[in-house]
Amino acid sequence: MNGAKILWVDDEIDLLRPHILFLEQKGYEVESCNNGYDAVELARQTPFDLIILDEMMPGMTGLETLPAIKEVQPTTPVIMVTKSEEENIMDKAIGSKIADYIIKPVNPNQVLLSIKKNVHSQQLVTEQTTADYRAEFGRISTSFGDAGTFADWCNVYRKLVNWEIELTESNDESIKEILTYQKNEANNEYAKFVRKNYAAWINDRDTDTPVMSHTLMRNNIFPVADANRKTTLLLIDNFRYDQWRSISSCLRGWYDTEREDFYCAILPTATQYARNAIFAGLMPLAIDKLIPDKWLNDNEEGGKNLYEEDFLRRQMQSNGKNYRMTFDKLVRPEAGRKLIDNINRIYDADFSVIVYNFLDILSHARTETEIIRELTEDEAAFRSLTRSWFEHSDLFTLLKLLSERGHKVIITSDHGTIRVDNPVKVVGDRETSTNLRYKTGRNLNYNPKEMYVVTKPEEIQLPQSNITSTYVFAYNRDFFVYPHNTNQFIRYYRNTFQHGGISMEEMIVPFIVLDPKGA
Prior knowledge:
elongated, 519 residues
């Protein structure tokens, strides 16, 4: 960890020799000089890991030396040493982007602490984080067996995502492999849990039934809209909890997080089923029976999500909600700018709904475009790209504007997505659906031990295209392949992000309520 190269600049440098010797004994390489002119020249010649700079020097002061040093070494952290804590001096120093400051008389341990904080902080944090995860590994694994409710599994998922994010910067590949193994183990256990409980949840036979897609509006969203003068629902397709974590810090200056929770997406975890269920407040089978002209099965031609606003207005009416509502679906990038240009529509509404499809488009682009695959080679890279997109998006601009107008904001999704890598064979006829994470059709040929099989779709309130239709759902990181051109198919789809099946990433969907700071 030591071996960092340090430049110490002070007009009384000879008096600091004991301090420099102390640092050298700790393994640091320390160069020194007694004026700003020499400091700039040394900085020009030698890359330093850190510079300690005296603020009060004759000739060229520390505050004058600092910008000159930053010109030649802009990313090197500088610690300012000063006799004075006067506010204007500190403002100037901090405005010039010092990393830290120390008040004279200088204590060698104080200097060492500041060096560790500014040179080794990431390594120290990573080492401690790795040690903390190793200590908690056993407790997390034990929690899989103890998780008896959806809420328990939300806690498991939250912990695993937190560790995944914490360990992102770690160079210890072995600890990342352990976490990946543990997450796979968790998803396998979660799949058993869903298989055991799902039908009971759907048919209200379970006292621990979670809020699900078809009950989300009634249980979670309408109560927020009832309690607030202005509410905006932002539904981001394919949005996972780790992606929420990646963008949440961007919003701290604009919103306080009032609620960070989860709900359970229905099966299949696909837009056609889950999003229609949210807006209709009905399971797909009920939509098909009650509003048959607005439901298309997988094997029928046409858009599968064309009537979401109609569904929502119908659900509002049946629940006695007469909000002034706007409904916008943003599929193309220019649609965000157009919505901002017409922002008064949203300002005037009591309840505004915005469906944002960018992440879904990005997921599909990753499958089809080589450069996007390279940019999102794993979950950490996908999170990073999500944050980069969000920081420069019209969506972020929109959220700032809504904060200024005092809108309560709900952020959620219709389902998540998972990176798949394990092919599982399913054989079907031409009428079989094409999704990689679930299949529906007749005469399907499969190994029932490898997937969740529903031979009577009405038991989980799903429609069937014909009387012998079956649904099968992939577990964990599996994806379905046909025997024809299998190897080519596997190469194309392995390590792509897909949805439709059973995993924590797809089914445990974030539900966030944001309280505006700008009101």
